[in-house]
Specification:
Length: 192
């Protein structure tokens, strides 16, 4: 297990060139927006959201929260416009570890990485190296956010490492402390 530097240089996340905000709607556990110049630009530059149908984009709660924090999106729950705090409260109700996961997501995005869900790998996120977009190449890491007070059994730890190994990705554990600072650890198999 090797520890990555905590205070790494933060790279601009290249969120897109178009000015302004776009409107979206919270529907169950996703945020849906009409396709327009801003949503297409944000997708093309940094792969926020997933195109659905021809005319819409679907955003995860993580992506929507990040875009809300960066003032690129308006999120409506029915007719009510949500601010950062109200959206955070809703997201925490939907996902109990949302803040821990979001802290890691936000940190990686601010460092210039594209972060997508990794549910099919049994992980929280898959992360693409800087400059690589999904579809151009495979993700380099799978990431598990963990609060510093959380305990993992050796079985859980081994399972996480086995998933990374079987998917040919590096395992990255993001440990979030009480101040939401993150320390990253890379874990890999070694043959003696």
């Amino acid at each position: 297990m090797s520890k990555k530097r905590k205070a790494e240089e933060v790279v601009e996340d290249n969120i897109g060139d178009k000015e302004g905000k776009f409107d979206s709607f919270l529907i169950n556990r996703n945020v849906i927006a009409e396709s327009n110049d801003i949503t297409r630009d944000i997708y093309d530059k940094s792969r926020f959201g997933e195109p659905i149908d021809k005319n819409k984009f679907q955003y995860s709660l993580m992506e929507a929260m990040y875009l809300l924090e960066r003032e690129k999106i308006n999120i409506y729950d029915k007719k009510k416009l949500l601010n950062f705090d109200s959206f955070l409260k809703l997201a925490i109700k939907l996902e109990k570890d949302f803040w821990i996961r979001y802290s890691v997501y936000r940190d990686l995005r601010k460092r210039g990485y594209i972060v997508k869900t990794a549910l099919k790998f049994g992980a929280d996120f898959r992360v693409y190296d800087r400059g690589v977009k999904p579809g151009d190449d495979h993700a380099k890491w799978i990431v598990y956010p963990v609060h510093e007070s959380e305990n993992l059994t050796w079985y859980e730890f081994s399972a996480k490492n086995r998933v990374a190994h079987s998917t040919r990705k590096n395992l990255l554990i993001g440990i979030v402390d009480e101040e939401s600072d993150i320390t990253y650890y890379t874990i890999s198999w070694v043959r003696p």
